[in-house]
Automatic annotation (TrEMBL):
<comment type="similarity">
    <text>Belongs to the perilipin family.</text>
</comment>
<dbReference type="GO" id="GO:0006629">
    <property type="term" value="P:lipid metabolic process"/>
</dbReference>
<protein>
    <submittedName>
        <fullName>PLIN1 protein</fullName>
    </submittedName>
</protein>
<dbReference type="GO" id="GO:0005811">
    <property type="term" value="C:lipid droplet"/>
</dbReference>
<keyword id="KW-0551">Lipid droplet</keyword>
<dbReference type="InterPro" id="IPR004279">
    <property type="entry name" value="Perilipin"/>
</dbReference>
<dbReference type="Pfam" id="PF03036">
    <property type="entry name" value="Perilipin"/>
</dbReference>
<dbReference type="InterPro" id="IPR042998">
    <property type="entry name" value="PLIN1"/>
</dbReference>
C-alpha cells in the first residue's frame, strides 16, 4: 500500500495535537455562544456541500492525473522523511 503524504503529516504528533487543540477550542466556543454555534453549523453544512460538489467535479481530472499525483506524493513522502530526520520536534506534541 502506497503511503499518503497528507495522512503522514496529519499523524505527526505536532500536527495532530495542534488539530486536536483547535477542535477543542472550536467546540467550546460553539458551546459557550449559541448564536455563534448556529452560524458555524450553517457554515459547516455549506462547506460539506461545496466539498462534495468539488469532489464530484474534479473526479475525471484526478483520474487522468493519477500518475502525476502518485509521483508528487512519493516525492513529498521522501521530503517528509528528510524533515522528520532533521527536525525531531515534529515527533512531539505541541505542548512539549
Amino acid at each position: 500500500m502506497q503511503e499518503n503524504v497528507l495522512q503522514r503529516v496529519l499523524q505527526l504528533p505536532v500536527v495532530s495535537s495542534t488539530c486536536e487543540s483547535l477542535q477543542r477550542t472550536y467546540t467550546s466556543t460553539k458551546e459557550a455562544h449559541p448564536l455563534m454555534a448556529s452560524v458555524c453549523e450553517v457554515y459547516e453544512r455549506g462547506v460539506q456541500g461545496a466539498g462534495a460538489l468539488a469532489m464530484w467535479g474534479m473526479e475525471p481530472v484526478v483520474r487522468k492525473l493519477e500518475p502525476q499525483f502518485a509521483m508528487a506524493n512519493n516525492l513529498a513522502c521522501r521530503g517528509l522523511d528528510h524533515l522528520e530526520e532533521k527536525i525531531p520536534a515534529l515527533q512531539y506534541p505541541v505542548d512539549k
